User: Which sequence fits this backbone?
């Protein structure tokens, strides 16, 4: 098949690499002039690597990621440094961390040369056909995959948009310019309406993020100073991470998710993947993982040689799965960002009282990916 992918983010590049390896002619349209990703770090759980392995991309991503978190103490702390809970090893055994740009590069290198058309903004044909318009000219395809993000123009053109919601939180992200002594401890620190997270990267640098419950669209002249003022008196190595980040390298974005999951991810020969289909808050660390699952599921289902049936099955399986993760992520965000002293106190008390084994069981369904070959209506690998 001839396939157009709109957007060269994680979902778009993963599905393009998967389909390209299966012999499909894939063209990826990316409106940015330069390759790579604007962003900082991210984490991928075992479900993402199960999906990547299913389409032959797992090893390439492992090479640019680190499993250091699995060898460190992790969990949630208070601003004083007191531990609320240490996560059981089963919850982080498969967790790997990496820089977003390295993930994009690894995925892009798996594509045939010339597959990505940078600086070309593609729009779905007005009538929803499997065709895109680029610079006024229309190109027809057998399948169009919309990986154009949370504010997807394709989703709107298909009449599937149900709005985007501000979560009530803003987020800062940064990567240190040098190594920081983490003392063998990582994870998140939960205050009242504020969270700070620390993640080791493969090159000894540290990815960190901070969130605050606040009104939308507020920015500071110096975002690193803004983070320092809010979190500088929290336990170490939080201040060390902030100070080790180059001035001007701190990113700030308000956190949004889809107000509601679309009624369908498929319309004709056009399919939504990634944030375009199920943009969620980052509270479960599953945004990238669910995008990768989309890509793997679609790649494997299309091996049946029956694209219409494959798209229908994809829609059924992925809407059920991602709606559950989207809902749980939103709920976790509300709990974690509790800002009232009473609410935060109850949150901390419940967290300390929760048995680690229960926490591990509660996350198993999210951190395990089930491919189509293990589900009813099996699609056999080629």
Assistant:
């Amino acid at each position: 098949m001839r396939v157009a992918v709109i957007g060269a983010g994680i979902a778009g590049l993963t599905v393009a690499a998967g389909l390209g390896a299966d012999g499909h002619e894939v063209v990826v349209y990316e409106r940015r002039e330069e390759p790579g990703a604007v962003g900082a770090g991210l984490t991928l759980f075992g479900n993402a690597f199960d999906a990547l392995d299913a389409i032959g991309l797992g090893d390439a991503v492992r090479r640019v990621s680190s499993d250091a978190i699995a060898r460190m103490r992790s969990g949630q702390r208070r601003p004083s440094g007191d531990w609320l809970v240490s996560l059981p090893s089963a919850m982080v055994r498969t967790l790997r961390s990496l820089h977003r740009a390295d993930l994009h590069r690894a995925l892009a290198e798996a594509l045939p040369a010339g597959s990505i058309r940078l600086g070309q903004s593609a729009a779905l044909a007005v009538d929803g056909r499997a065709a895109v318009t680029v610079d006024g000219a229309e190109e027809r395809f057998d399948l169009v995959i919309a990986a154009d993000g949370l504010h997807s123009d394709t989703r709107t053109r298909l009449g599937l948009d149900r709005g985007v919601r501000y979560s009530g939180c803003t987020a800062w992200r940064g990567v240190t310019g040098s190594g920081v002594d983490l003392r063998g401890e990582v994870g998140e620190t939960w205050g009242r309406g504020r969270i700070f997270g620390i993640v080791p990267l493969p090159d000894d640098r540290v990815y960190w993020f901070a969130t605050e419950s606040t009104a939308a669209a507020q920015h500071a002249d110096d975002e690193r100073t803004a983070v320092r003022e809010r979190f500088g008196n929290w336990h170490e190595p939080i201040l060390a991470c902030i100070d080790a980040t180059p001035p001007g390298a701190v990113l700030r974005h308000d956190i949004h998710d889809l107000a509601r999951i679309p009624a369908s991810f498929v319309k004709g020969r056009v399919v939504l993947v990634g944030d375009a289909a199920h943009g969620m808050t980052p509270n479960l660390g599953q945004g990238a993982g669910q995008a990768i699952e989309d890509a793997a599921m679609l790649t494997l289902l299309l091996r049946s040689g029956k694209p219409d049936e494959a798209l229908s099955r994809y829609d059924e399986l992925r809407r059920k799965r991602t709606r559950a993760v989207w809902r749980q992520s939103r709920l976790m965000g509300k709990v974690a960002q509790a800002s009232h002293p009473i609410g935060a106190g109850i949150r901390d008390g419940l967290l300390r009282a929760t048995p680690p084994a229960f926490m591990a069981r509660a996350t198993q369904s999210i951190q395990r990916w089930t491919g189509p070959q293990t589900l009813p209506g099996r699609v056999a690998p080629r």
